[in-house]
Amino acid sequence: MDDVAVARRALSLLDLTELSDVCSEAAVEKLIANAVGKHGKVAAVCIWPQFIKRAKQRLAGSGVKVATVVNFPSGDGKIDQIVDDVNECLGDGADEIDLVLPYKAFLAGNEKHALQMVEEVEQTLSDETTLKVILETGEYPDQAAVKRASKLAIGAGADFIKTSTGKSKTSATLDAARTMLGEIKASGRDVGLKPSGGIRTIADARAYLALADEIMGPRWVSPRTFRFGASGLLTAIVGAIEGTGGANNASY
Predict the structure, then answer these.
(1) Could you give the dihedral angle defined by the CA atoms of residues 117, 183, 195 and 9, in that order, rounded to the nearest 10 degrees?
(2) How far is 120 from 124, CA to CA, in rounded Å?
(3) Is 159 a catalytic residue?
(4) Is 38 a catalytic residue?
(5) Region 97-114 average pLDDT
(6) What DSSP character marks residue 249?
(7) Is residue 250 scored above 80 in pLDDT?
(8) Exactly one of 41, 65, 132, 162 is catalytic; which is it?
(9) What is the pTM of this model?
(10) Is the confidence at residue 214, as pLDDT, over 60?
(11) Catalytic pick from 132, 159, 194, 204?
(12) Are 20 and 235 in contact (CB under 8 A)?
C-alpha cells in the first residue's frame, strides 16, 4: 500500500487519545473536534474519565465511540475500587473501557489477582461495552511473559488486548504485537489488538497493519478487531492524505 492508502486505512482504526498528565478541557475539545473530519472519522476517542460526559455530548450521533481508562497507568488499584470506577464511567456514558492489567502482580507470580480483576470488570460490562486490557508489555522480561499475559486476558473475557499505556519507557513494539496476535489466533476467540504508544508515522502504521494481515489474514483488520492508540498519528495521516506532511492537521 502507498502512504495514502495506509493513511486512509489507519484513520478508521484510530483511538484518538488525550491522556497527558496536564490534560485540559481545551485539549479535550480539540481532540473531539479532530475526531470527525473531511477525510472521515476515527474509531474512538480515549480520554480521562472526567471528560466522558463532555465527549458523549459532543460526539452524539457521530458513530465515534468514547473510551476511557481505569487502573491507569500503574495497574496497582484494588479490585473493588476499580469496579466502582468502571461503574462510574459506564454511568457517564463510556462505550469502551481500557483496563490496565495488574501487570506488576502478574509478573511477581500473582496471576490469580490479575485474572480476578479482568473477570470482575468484564462481568460488570454489558455486551455492548468493549473491554480492552492493557498488558503494558514494555515492562515484561520476555515474550514468554507477554504470551502468558495475553492468554490470561483473552481467557478472562477481554474484547481487545492492548500493548501499552504510553507511560512506560518502552511502549508498543512489533515483537509484542506479533506475540499477542499469535495468542489471539490460537484462542479462536473474536478478540482484537490495540498497539498503543509511540506510533506516530505512516511507516509505523504500515508495519503493524502488515503484521496483522500476515498473521490474521488480509480481511481481519477492522475497527472491531484492530485499533491504534495514538494522538500524533493523526497528523501523519492527514499529511499523507493531503500531501502536506501533516502541516494542515489543524484544518482536519
Answers:
(1) -130
(2) 6
(3) no
(4) no
(5) 98
(6) G
(7) no
(8) 162
(9) 0.96
(10) yes
(11) 194
(12) no
